[in-house]
Design goal:
single chain; 6 helices; alpha+beta
Length: about 200
């Protein structure tokens, strides 16, 4: 290898490093430390763009006898002013930078943020002894399409398929092992496929 080739390689390495540093300074990792813009988000696309349709707005639910078992009535506020009843679609709400997902007419704080994001849902449960109580069920959100479902191997499998090698290691495990170690698989997948927000 001659000197000209070495200089070319060094130049390419330096150029790659410059672009990498520039990309990192212009973007932010989608994780628990990311602060979203306050407001009302009507779609998963708005979350990925960090661009709520109703920026700076707050929500307040008003419950009535008719809404106890159904959708509550919401009013939205901007700078303390009641803007009236909120009738648009409602995917998420952000207050003080914290993202809350709307699911089954309730808002849920995110536990894990990434390509696969998770949150807890209270569920009524009766055990084998007949004792009833409230238990937490882990759900996930796929922000690329708005899909919300229980965190089970069969429900996240379609996401893992995007990485052929990762999916191969996942399906090589038994179903019981998949269930037992599913959260570890999710953490690994998120680390391999991070989402970055562009900073303005």
């Amino acid at each position: 290898m001659n000197i000209a080739h070495l200089k070319l390689i060094l130049f390419c390495l330096v150029l790659t490093n410059v672009f990498t540093v520039h990309a990192q300074s212009d973007s932010a990792l989608f994780d628990k430390n990311f602060r979203f813009r306050d407001g009302i988000y009507t779609s998963p696309r708005e979350v990925l763009d960090n661009n709520p349709r109703y920026p700076g707005c707050q929500l307040m639910g008003k419950y009535s006898a008719e809404s106890i078992f159904g959708r509550p009535t919401y009013h939205y506020f901007k700078h303390g002013t009641d803007m009236g009843e909120y009738i648009d679609s409602l995917f998420a709400f952000v207050s003080e930078g914290q993202l809350l997902i709307n699911y089954r007419h309730d808002f849920h704080k995110m536990i894990l943020l990434g390509t696969i994001s998770t949150f807890l849902v209270d569920a009524f449960h009766i055990d084998e002894n007949g004792d009833a109580g409230i238990v937490d069920k882990l759900y996930f959100v796929d922000f690329t399409n708005g899909n919300i479902n229980k965190l089970l191997p069969e429900n996240v499998e379609y996401i893992f398929k995007h990485d052929r090698q990762f999916y191969k290691s996942f399906v090589s495990a038994s179903y019981m092992k998949q269930k037992k170690t599913l959260y570890s698989f999710v953490l690994k997948y998120n680390a391999l496929h991070p989402i970055y927000f562009r900073l303005e």
